[in-house]
């Protein structure tokens, strides 16, 4: 039996999994990232975790490849880190692919954490039937990935898909991370929802309670009016942005994943309505808004899915 | 000597040209579109114009192919019109490629008028050295085209690149053509600039003078303060949108063409400054903002350039 090893490197934890051709996790392990210990420690953890996966394999199991998804901007061609910010200090420049291949003599693929979610969708999920789709990951921030003609859109150095830094209000607040004004991430993401919540509460002159996005979404689902106003802004902003992505890419689907979207059908239905109202008829008809098929394990399954997607092993 | 015949079908005129491999126009003809006469008359004009180009060829000249750029949404694969609005009434559904190939027995390529400008840039212009770039055409409206890995991004049915219908203000006015709010076309285009000008004048309680975009740009260049305010909004809105495109595509270049951009370096310099301030450092460093290389004849030269780009005749 053949397996792909997936590694999902995030700011707080590293997930390892052995994934079969059907996308099922056969074996898994979790480590804390402890990013502040620096890049050498992180590399050691990654190599140790892969080692562990290999030695735990059932007899007769074969490793077809190792797929890695990492926070930060990754140069897919070289498999090294083009840029990583405060999430993974010192990680910039690490030649992950080379280090892993030198150690294990197995082909490795390295990409950023949202691109591998798109690969998971392409290989196992909602993207199987589509050649052209956009993935939006609504987590702490807003990440994106774009598939055109069945391939990820990468741009000059693999930085394409930073959809969180598309402006939906050129008179809006300045984005601390990119310098643009009114980036969609400032509205439709965990931190964005919390920001709008705090703004709305201070305008309402209520006590200095700072709800997080989960609390705001729960209050919204229970019909609390202030939370309703906040989520109305979130959905209008995101609806305008998604309509813009549809006009930009003419995709067959927009796939919504990440923690915020796991709120369920109420959120997606409201978003879908906002998007429909903002999209030209022909493009709207050609495009479906879908929840991500692969759930909380999308990062590690997507990391592994690279092996099946690029490895020509099918 | 080999020629490509280019045909540029617009709302008011049709341009025909015989273009050589270096992008020079060797022969040209202009017809009025008279779109209201309907699609059959339009087809007849297009065929007659091509006929004329062929019969005027110098002895020994060979036609390598016929390239057509048309207003509206074009399905490149079939070479037929997917959707054309009021600009070319009844044009939707016309199988241009088939009609032209049946008549002349020469390979024909049909695409929309902005995609062929991107092809002109790829074959003859600023895009020759780039595999990944975005073209923005600032005319009456705002059109776009996207090149990734040397190929046009087309999406589900060839509608990709409608960059004018990306929102830069989700609380802005509703766009009459697509339904989104605060589309960038409502700010940074001939009609957008005129709209902001009228708004600004009525706020200033001046007489009911309605300047067009050319007059506003001229007044801006001469230091007129009200026009300065208008153009400041235009440039901030367009700067935010272009920064968003850079974050989306990580392109090597953004190429700005169309009538508004022909204002010259003052406009492009101001836009460049606004874009730089709004773009994350790594992406900004990797991307140049350039004026379109091919000028007023970009439509017909680009139409012809399809023959050299797709024909494998190089």
Textual characterization of the structure:
Two copies of one chain form a homodimer. By secondary structure, the first copy, chain A, is an alpha/beta fold. Chain A has two domains: 2-121 and 296-310, Nucleotidyltransferase, domain 5 (2-Layer Sandwich); 127-291, ATPase, nucleotide binding domain (Nucleotidyltransferase, domain 5, 2-Layer Sandwich), CATH 3.30.420. In chain A, helix 4 packs across helix 6 (225-249) and helix 6 crosses helix 7. The longest helix of chain A has 25 residues, at 225-249. Chain A is built from nine helices and twelve strands. Chain A has helices at residues 39-55, 96-104, 113-124, 190-203, 213-221, 225-249, 265-278, 281-285, 298-310, and strands at 2-9, 13-19, 25-32, 62-70, 73-75, 80-83, 108-112, 133-138, 142-148, 151-152, 253-257, 288-291. In chain A, 38% of the residues lie in helices and 22% in strands. In chain A, the strands form three sheets. The first copy, chain A, has a five-stranded mixed beta sheet with strand order 3-2-1-4-7, sandwiched between helices.
What oligomeric state is this? homodimer
Q: Give Rg of chain A in angstroms.
A: 20 Å
Largest sheet of chain A: 5 strands, mixed
Overall tally of structural domains of chain A? 2
Number of helices of chain A: 9
What's the CATH H-level superfamily name of the largest domain in chain A? ATPase, nucleotide binding domain
Q: What percent of residues of chain A adopt helix (DSSP H or I)?
A: 25-40%
* Structural class by sheet pairing and helices of chain A: alpha/beta
Apparent shape of chain A:
globular
- Write down the CATH class of the largest domain in chain A: Alpha Beta
């Amino acid at each position: 039996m053949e397996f792909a090893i997936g590694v999902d490197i995030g700011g707080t934890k590293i997930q390892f999994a052995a994934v079969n051709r059907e996308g099922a996790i056969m074996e898994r392990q979790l480590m804390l990232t402890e990013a502040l210990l620096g890049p050498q420690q992180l590399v050691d953890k990654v190599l140790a975790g892969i080692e562990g996966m290999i030695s735990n394999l059932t007899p007769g199991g074969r490793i077809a490849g190792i797929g890695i998804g990492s926070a930060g901007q990754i140069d897919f061609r070289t498999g090294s880190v083009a840029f990583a910010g405060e999430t993974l200090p010192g990680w910039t420049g690490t030649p992950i692919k080379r280090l892993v291949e030198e150690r294990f003599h197995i082909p490795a693929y390295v990409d950023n954490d949202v691109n591998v979610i798109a690969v998971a969708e392409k290989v196992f999920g909602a993207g199987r039937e589509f050649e052209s789709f956009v993935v939006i990951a609504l987590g702490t921030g807003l990440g994106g990935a774009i598939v055109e003609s069945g391939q990820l859109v990468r741009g000059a150095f693999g930085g394409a898909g930073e959809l969180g830094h598309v402006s939906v209000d050129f008179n809006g607040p300045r984005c601390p991370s990119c310098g643009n004004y009114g980036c969609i991430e400032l509205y439709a993401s965990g931190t964005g929802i919390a920001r709008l919540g705090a703004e709305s509460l201070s305008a309402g002159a209520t006590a200095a309670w700072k709800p997080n996005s989960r609390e705001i979404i729960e209050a919204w689902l229970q019909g609390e009016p202030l939370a309703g106003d906040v989520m109305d802004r979130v959905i209008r902003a995101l609806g305008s942005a998604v309509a813009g992505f549809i006009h930009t890419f003419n995709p067959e689907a927009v796939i919504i994943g990440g923690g915020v979207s796991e709120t369920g059908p109420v959120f997606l239905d409201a978003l879908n309505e906002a998007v429909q109202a903002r999209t030209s008829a022909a493009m709207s008809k050609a495009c479906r808004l879908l929840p991500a098929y692969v759930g909380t394990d999308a990062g590690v399954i997507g990391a592994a899915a690279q092996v099946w997607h690029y490895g020509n092993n099918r």
